[in-house]
Amino acid sequence: MLHHGDCLKVLPALPEKSVDLVVTSPPYNLGINYRSFDDTAGRTEFLEWCKAWATELKRVLADDGSFFLNVGAAPANPLMPHQIILAFKARLEKADNGATKAAFPFAGVQLTAAPYTSVAMNGFELGPEWKMIEIRGTADRNYAPGELKVSIHLATARQTVDFGPVVVLDLGQGG
């Protein structure tokens, strides 16, 4: 079934974990002249709006569902850094010695060549339930295709980890 409408009106009416696929291209807060949306909100207001629809999407998306998000940015000031989010769903299927949780030391977006500097990085913990992991950072400049990679270190214990979609979002220039 295809749903078309204001996400903050449509999503709350849907049952939890009832959606298998979400494809969205929300307004970018770049001053685009939409028919029914003010695309010039203050940064805090815009991020609160994003948090509201993202929270609803998380609620309605099935555990094995997929989420495709189109994002945009304006290169009006190339000296401004870009906010980067590495996001993925994962769960610990089997851990060493029957453990129910495991800590993973590093997930991030980093340079593909030495010195392998991280743009966004953090550790995370997993258990048997699917969990959305978000790792945030700030890119100091625009990077050419192939200059950055996703790296997820799974530590040294014997374990099986299931991963859902892994995405890197460029939320554009902060400020």
Keyphrases for this structure?
8 strands, about 180 residues, mainly beta, Jelly Rolls, 2 domains, 3-stranded antiparallel beta sheet, single chain
Instruction: Write down the secondary-structure element order.
Output: HEHEEEEEEE
Secondary structure tally, helices = 2
The shape is: flat
CATH architecture of the largest domain, please? Sandwich
End-to-end C-alpha gap: 39 Å
Residue ranges: pLDDT <50 for 5 or more in a row?
Answer: none
Q: Report the top-level CATH class of the largest domain.
A: Mainly Beta
* Oligomeric organization of the protein chains: single chain
CATH topology of the largest domain: Jelly Rolls
Q: Determine the mean pLDDT.
A: 79
Q: How many structural domains can be distinguished in the coordinates?
A: 2
Largest sheet: 3 strands, antiparallel
Alpha carbon gyration radius: 18 Å
Structural class: mainly beta
The spatial strand order of the largest sheet comes to 6-3-8
How many DSSP-defined strands? 8
- As a percent range, the share of strand residues is 35-45%
CATH level-4 homologous superfamily of the largest domain: Galactose-binding domain-like
Question: What proportion of the residues is helical, as a percent range?
Answer: 10-25%
